[in-house]
Amino acid sequence: MKLYYGPGACSLSPHIVLREAGLAFDLVRVSTKTHKTEDGGDFYAINPKGGVPVLELDNGERITEGPAIVQYIADQVPDKKLAPPNGTLARTRCQEWLNYLTSEIHKGFSPLFNPSFPEDSKPYFREALLKRFAWVDSQLEGRDYLLGEFSVADAYLFVLSNWGQYVGVDISPFAHLGALRGRMMARASVQEAMKAEGLLK
Fold first, then answer.
1. CB 193 within 8 A of CB 155
2. Calpha distance 3→197 (Å, rounded)
3. How far apart are CA 20 and CA 23, in angstroms?
4. 2-81+189-196: what CATH class?
5. What is the full DSSP assignment across 117-168?
6. Residues 3-52 pLDDT 10s
7. Separation CA 151–CA 145 (nearest Å)
8. Cα separation of 69 and 23, whole Å?
9. Which class is 89-187 in CATH?
10. Nearest-angstrom CA–CA distance, 71 and 74
11. What is the pLDDT of residues 134-167, one digit of tens each?
């Protein structure tokens, strides 16, 4: 398999999950600004939508969209229990979290990372994100991870929570979220993925 990624982008989530899964894969770095691969290739030829991540399977098939990719990876190694079994309420809860993270938090960051977006509008988006992170924090009370045990949803939340430091969204008041972040940083998969992407020395 081959994972197309941008350092620290949302593709870090499937990168972490691939390492949790113990599956063999290659990394291909993509510039999210120029949409070129590290060898100068046109990334739009890989993904016409232009975004990372893309998981290319050994048969040439490609999967886009992080929440879909992490569930696919989890289903390849069911014994690792990276996501609950398909068809269960627990799996639906996992999908519920992945959908919330992608639609309400991930996309909430988009205006803040956009240099052409009016600065005087950005406080509204920061406040909206803080309210959403506050709700996530409340759901973590009394549990180590979003579903109780580690799942692919936690990898996604961890990556999104990293972004606040770059755009003025201070999540430090959220103790339960901070505790989850600490547990995630202690995982070998997270450290290995971040080192491979140049995010940790």
1. no
2. 12
3. 8
4. alpha beta
5. S-GGGHHHHHHHHHHHHHHHHHHTTT-SSTBSB--HHHHHHHHHHHTHHHHT
6. 999 999 999 999 999 999 999 999 999 999 999 999 999 999 999 999 99
7. 8
8. 13
9. mainly alpha
10. 5
11. 999 999 999 999 999 999 999 999 999 999 999 9
User: Could you read off the pLDDT of 112-143 as tens digits, one per residue?
Assistant: 999 999 999 999 999 999 999 999 999 999 99
What phi and psi, each to the nearest 5 degrees, are found at residue 27? Answer: -105, 135
Boundaries of every domain in the chain: 2-81+189-196, 89-187
| Contact indicator for 51, 43 with CB cutoff of 8 Å | no
The answer to whether residues 11 and 4 touch, using CB atoms and an 8 Å cutoff, is yes
d(CA 38, CA 32): 11
Alpha-carbon distance of 125 to 102, in angstroms, equals 15
Q: Is 24 buried (19+), middle (13-18) or exposed (0-12) by CB count in 10 A?
A: exposed
How far apart CA 31 and CA 42 sit, in angstroms, is 10
| pLDDT given at position 21 | 98
- No. of helices (H) and no. of strands (E), the chain: 9, 4
